[in-house]
Specification:
Strand content: 15-25%
Oligomer: single chain
Distance between the termini: 77 Å
Shape: elongated
Mean pLDDT: 84
Structural class: alpha/beta
Order of helices and strands: HEEEHEHE
Helix content: 25-40%
Strand order of the largest sheet: 3-2-1-4-5
């Protein structure tokens, strides 16, 4: 007859490690895409009462850079630089529509825009970024700030 083993079954560790590594790579990839949207060259304004944002919502991150030698604002959305805020309306609207489709029922249904303006940017350029988000159909707009230097 056939050779059937008697005794206790063994716990296989190798498949468990494979699954854990796949999950680790998945979460590292997801996290790195969010980090890439944050422009590290921007010095955020300081607000002592700034609070941590709710990261469970779908959002569009708009960076407003201030280029000092030229004294000119640059608008960055989805790793693309726009010299004019009005040029971002189409891409932001597309991001809002796809973001709203991904939100499941029961989750927070509002798509949000987060404006990360450099502390040296004149307010008129932050206002232009707000207008671009509003034209894209986003009514919930937040601003990034830090609570200490």
């Amino acid at each position: 007859g056939g050779g059937t083993e008697q005794g206790e079954p063994e716990f296989q560790v190798a498949p468990m490690i494979d699954v854990l590594l796949v999950i680790l790579v998945f979460f590292m990839t997801i996290t790195s895409t969010q980090v890439l949207k944050v422009d590290q060259s921007i010095q955020l304004p300081i607000a002592k009462d700034a609070q941590k944002k709710d990261n469970t919502r779908a959002e569009a991150i708009v960076n407003v850079r201030w280029k000092l030698p030229a004294k000119k604002a640059q608008f960055v959305f989805d790793d693309r630089v726009y010299p004019n805020a009005n040029e971002m309306v189409g891409p932001i609207k597309t991001a809002r529509i796809t973001g709203e489709k991904k939100i499941t029922a029961g989750a927070n249904p509002n798509f949000r825009a987060v404006i990360r303006g450099d502390r040296d940017v004149p307010a008129i350029y932050v206002s232009q970024a707000m207008n671009a988000c509003a034209e894209a159909g986003i009514s919930d707009i937040s601003f990034s700030a830090v609570n200490k230097e």
